[in-house]
Amino acid sequence: MSLNYDGALAIYEPTLGLEVHVELNTKSKMFCGCATEFGAQPNTQTCPVCLGLPGSLPVVNKRAIESSILIGLALNCSIAPFSRFARKNYFYPDMPKNFQTSQYDEPICVNGYLDVDVETDEGNKTFRVEIERVHMEEDTGKSLHVGGATGRIHGADHSLLDYNRAGIPLVEIVTKIVPNTGKYAPLVARAYVATLRDILRALKVSDVKMEQGSLRCDVNLSLSKVGSGKLGTRSETKNVNSLRSVERAVTGEIIRHANRLESGEKIVQETRHFLEESGETRPGRSKEQAEDYRYFPEPDLVPVVPDAKWIEELRTLLPEKPADRRKRLQTAWAVPDKEMNAMVNAELLDTVEQTVLLGADPTKARSWWLGEISRIANDKAVSPTDLITVNDVAQIIELISKGELTDKLARQVVEGVIAKEGSPSEVIAKRGLKVVSDDSQLMKAIEEAIAAAPDTADKVRGGNIPAAGALIGAVMKLTGGQADAAKVRELLLKHLGQ
């Protein structure tokens, strides 16, 4: 009988370890002047240095060092007064040099922590995830496997290599083991990556777009018998590229480990690939130990020795912590927890704040971005901010507040802007979307509606106020939805003696 998730946790307790790779948004690569723009034609952003050609010499990117220090400071790390690069030797097709320039025993940041909040059965609980190290390295190239059904090497006819990504500055953030998470292990892993992503975005050191690979998570997991106090053999699920997938990868590996152990099989220390369609993992390669990489100091690069004064200057540049900012905005906007979480989960908090800073009412800004605009974005499978600008939304909300647009008309304006018909004012002019506010025009429509439904009008005269809804609806129809419903109601009831 196979174990499900609850069954697995009745027997075993999980231990997590998370490694997050972050591509820095520097304009040039880690050790050369090649551009780092995403989406360029394959192999057009390369040079002798990032291709590892004989005689080429690397030079460290100062901005990458600065970004790494900022990350370390934001994660409560100690900044090493002396660190250096090493060569990590292993063969892989997308490694043009057949070694990766990384940091091994002397990383730039050590011994930090990040507190993450998770909603548990007992309410909100804070888990502390301790950081082992933050180190600098370079990214590898990218393999494209052609001809197979899955896009992976198995079953492919041939592979293509794009070295544009090779040499892009990369920071790896490695946690210490994370024990005592119990059944919340998947949620802790997700919350950690989400919180880390928020911090990196606030630092402006990376665009942290997981779908483009600029933030990737390796999930290490092991199980041990409940109460044994021993660590089990770990597996490492590589390059998980969404928050949902991080959670699913932890859940799936807990179930897989538990079932193997219960059937008497051993856990193999290996890398594994996450399968989006099933939430399961499959074997990659056996996991090497540090000595297998034959690390040795990089002879072509001098050690990194950041000045203590410079470090303190960088500390003053740290932005408001994302958690503190959320609490501040939640208080200022009087937003319930559920709606604040919705904005955060939809990655629209920054967008809503920008809209509010342009003068929009917070409630209306939140409603439009999370409502109509997100609905259209979901239908088109794009980000809401790809469809319409913050300025346009703020202008539409202002027109609503002035009474120049109803919500119904505003939806048509949003649709027009998204359809590239122009700015909100241009869409309004082209479509003739103007609120009918002239009393004489409204009264004409009201009298026409009453004449068409005299029985309903009599009910309202007799005190049945809810019956007025049908008449108001008729007036809105007669005016093409361009009347102010509140004003129609006021005039209608007054006209019928109520």
TrEMBL record:
Q: Which UniProt keywords apply?
A: ATP-binding, Ligase, Nucleotide-binding, Protein biosynthesis, Transferase
By its UniProt entry, which SMART domains does this protein fall under? Answer: GatB_Yqey
Asn/Gln amidotransferase domain: which residues? 350-496
Q: Which reaction does it catalyse?
A: L-glutamyl-tRNA(Gln) + L-glutamine + ATP + H2O = L-glutaminyl-tRNA(Gln) + L-glutamate + ADP + phosphate + H(+); L-aspartyl-tRNA(Asn) + L-glutamine + ATP + H2O = L-asparaginyl-tRNA(Asn) + L-glutamate + ADP + phosphate + 2 H(+)
Q: Name the enzyme group at the top EC level.
A: ligase
UniProt key word Nucleotide-binding: yes
Q: Do you know which InterPro entries this protein is assigned to?
A: Asn/Gln-tRNA_amidoTrfase_suB/E, Asn/Gln-tRNA_Trfase_suB/E_cat, Asn/Gln_amidotransferase, Asn/Gln_tRNA_amidoTrase-B-like, GatB, GatB_Yqey_C_2, Gln_synth/guanido_kin_cat_dom
Q: What's the EC number here?
A: 6.3.5.-
Pfam families noted in UniProt: GatB_N, GatB_Yqey
Please provide, alphabetically and separated by semicolons, the GO molecular function terms listed in this UniProt record: asparaginyl-tRNA synthase (glutamine-hydrolyzing) activity; ATP binding; glutaminyl-tRNA synthase (glutamine-hydrolyzing) activity; transferase activity
Q: Which GO terms describe its biological process?
A: glutaminyl-tRNAGln biosynthesis via transamidation; translation
Which superkingdom does the taxonomy of this entry point to?
Bacteria
Q: Which family does it belong to?
A: Belongs to the GatB/GatE family. GatB subfamily.
Assembly mode: Heterotrimer of A, B and C subunits.
According to its UniProt entry, the function of this protein is described as: Allows the formation of correctly charged Asn-tRNA(Asn) or Gln-tRNA(Gln) through the transamidation of misacylated Asp-tRNA(Asn) or Glu-tRNA(Gln) in organisms which lack either or both of asparaginyl-tRNA or glutaminyl-tRNA synthetases. The reaction takes place in the presence of glutamine and ATP through an activated phospho-Asp-tRNA(Asn) or phospho-Glu-tRNA(Gln).
What protein does this entry describe?
Aspartyl/glutamyl-tRNA(Asn/Gln) amidotransferase subunit B
Source organism of the structure? Candidatus Nanopelagicus limnae
**Gene this protein is translated from:** gatB
